[in-house]
Amino acid sequence: MRLVFADETELDVIRIYGASRVYQGAMRDELAIEIDPDAAAYDELIKIFEDTDKTAALSTISDEGERSLIGADYSLLTSISQERRDVPLPPGEIAEPISESVIVVRVAQLSYVEKHMQELEKRIEGLGSSGGGIESTVELINAILGE
After folding, report:
1. Which pTM does this prediction carry?
2. With b meaning 16 or more CB within 10 Å and e meaning fewer, what string describes 60-75?
3. What H or E segment, with its residue span, contains residue 117?
4. What is the pLDDT of residues 93-113, one digit of tens each?
């Protein structure tokens, strides 16, 4: 499976699973992304997942070529670690347990309030570059108030 970022770059992954958890005082969706340590360097993964432009939208491409949207704004890198995990055996097979090493990257989704604050910050930054003025300030206030 391949993970596709907002800028259309791709990363081979083993598995992605999600859960809800409290992070930085807010209940959030969190993804745990398992990656083969040979597929990407640890430092490279940190750089990729700290880039909020890349993580603005995430989707997957299955081994059959089907693309599925995961979601948007998984922009908070909560942890990255190398872990050992047991490889599941086929049903009914009896064998010595096998384990493998994987890198697990955990990213949390921005809350509604955080996303809204980012949009307001962009609008305010736009006021400075557009010359500002009282009309722009009134438009911004009306946008904030939803009028």
Report:
1. 0.75
2. beeeeeeeeebeebbb
3. helix 112-129
4. 888 888 889 999 999 998 888
